[in-house]
Amino acid sequence: MTVSREVEAEIARLYHAEHWKVGTIAAQLGVHEDVVRRVIGRAPSKQRTQTAAPPPAAVAPYVDFIRETLERYPKLCSTRLWDMLRERGYAGSARALRRFVKKVRPKGAREAFLRLDALIGEEAQIDWAHVGQIPVEGGGHRSLWLFLMVLSWSRAMWGEFCFDTTVHSLLRSLVRGASYFGGTPRRWLFDNPKIVVLERHGRVSRYHPLLLDLASAMRVELRLCHPYRGNEKGRVERKIRFLRQRFLDGRDIYAIEQGNRELLAFLDQIGHPQRHPDFKARTIADCLVEERARLLPLPSPLPETDVVMPIAIDKTAFARFDTNLYSAPPDYAEETLTLAADDRVVRLLAGQKVVAEHRRSWGLRQKVESPDHRAEIVARKRGASASTGRDRLRTAAPGIDVLLERWVEDETSAAWSPRPASCSISMAWTFSAEPSPTPSSVGRTTRARSVCSARSTAAAPKRRCRWTCASATTCPTATSSRTTWVGTMPSDDVLRRLQGLGFRLPLDALSDFLEHAARERLSPLAMAERLVELERREREARNLTARTRLAMLGKFQTLERFDWNHPRKIDRALYERLYKTLDFVDRAENVLLRGPSGVGKTTLAQNLGLAALTHGYSVRFCTLAGMLADLLRRDSLPAFERRLRRYARPRLLILDEIGYLPCDNRSADLLYNIVSRRHEARSIVITTNLPFRQWGTVFPGAACVAALVDRFVQHCHVIDIDAESWRQKTAMQQPNGRSADGQDQIKSH
Fold first, then answer.
1. Contact 747/561 with Cβ under 8 angstroms?
2. pLDDT tens per residue across span 170-217
3. What are the residues facing 201 on neighbouring strands?
4. Which phi-psi region, left, alpha or beta, contains residue 618 (left: φ > 0; alpha: ψ -120 to 50)?
């Protein structure tokens, strides 16, 4: 190797003056070590003839087996080969085997790659690069990614920083990149990430459906690189390396907006003014101008790339999205709205109306709240009353808890034994609580005023009454050792106050109870226990009435009037077990009542619903046609989701009349959605006149019928009813619908 005299002088100076080693000089100046030795006066080292070292003694017996195995499997790892040798008696170490395998492993033949040239406007290559992490709100960090799109012919590029690599982020970047270039090429070339291709078997690939929708709207073909073929997308790989070296190295990125601004400025000022690698006389910017004329025009309007999904608003009027909370107007608390979000804005929609709009937070566990929403909640809460009767009672009488405790203490202590006087105390207590420094003084500072009447039966020294009466501060003494309660009629004002505190008992029931308590001389604790029991029964009765009304059972005959002798065939024992135990509801099992019209299927189903209501379960009864019509009337996704919960949430759903009217494919999909949501979670009772194999005639052409039947029959009790129509029988007996004895017949279906 011949070098210039300047290089020889530099070699001599570095060796003699700076005392550099031969290898260091050769590496820094880019010359061979023999050249350095020649310049400094040393003879070049003679090349040693290397002889193959013998294998270690432990490996020697297995050399032929190792070579044969490596010829068949050149990429077999040495640890797997070590396991195979140990089974054959090898006692050496894995390290010795690894050193020997490194020497004898067959060298793979170098592959010659084909240079690929793209036509103008034909292809864009797309890839991502992980940049690092940047701090976000909340004290955490998020990974920062660089999305890059490169036009294969002009080498023009566009990129942006993003926090996530989801499919929606990919769609946004693709649309923005196409907008930057002013059009789209005819083909997008990707690597093989999961957000692009869901699965791949050889040459057959299944793309992400959202990406397919965008490609269809943009009129672009999707194509994947072959695995381990870096030359197919070498243009975008080289541009990523170029950006790492020229843009990212030595640059601090504090925010994603700052990084995107600086990246676009870099592309306009440095990236695109570069010379084209194939057309040396032209710049990349010049080639981009020519290629833009060959790109496909953009569709108008551009496809939507927002994340659109139904989202539940909690009771505090917040929606949770990507670990963060976004406020909504309080009117939409505990409802379902539609969320539309991109990388900058989060919107909440009720139908087509935008009810809230926030800047998207990329922090972790952040609360994004609108001041208007907060002010509206505060304004409402400022005038709100307590939600329960107990809270309203405490508001009216702050000392009620202490007073009740004193009643219990006095009932179980000797303080209630001998009384100097007998007082009749009405239940119209009014309280005026005063602060008390110690619990022992609460009984003295909390006064209960009542109308007291005392009768003295004998002269005795006066003692202060435990309760301060409205008419006097002392009561006459009495010779009786027991307190005497004299009944008085409670006033209507007292009864209304009790109802104002949340009591559900009617006024006449409250009045009767208070008279009974005074007449029977009930203690305060016993009176409170019985009053609570009466109130509990009243609330349970009202709750059952309300749930029965919401269940929409309608009018029907009770099970006691059902004629079990009319059907020729029915599994009565199974039905009565289901009716009495309701264990199928607890196990989320289904019931099918099958038979011709007019044999009592609906009546039996309604009685199952009534039994479930009595045991505290929520029930919904409807015909199939009514349910489908109710769901199909919803014209927005949030309204549809809210109405769908009406049929998905009850513990027992009764669907009547399946098989009487044909339904379209959309109706079949709705029924399948409900059955699938309730599968192994909630019970369904269905009445029908068709066997399962004929359900396809109800939903002609629907592909989900087989899956619907399969989910329903997995845990199902089938009750077949074989009988003549009861309505036809009674109609033949009496035209006006009454039997000969004048008694109403059971109208069942």
1. no
2. 999 999 999 999 999 999 999 888 889 888 776 778 898 899 999 999
3. 204
4. beta
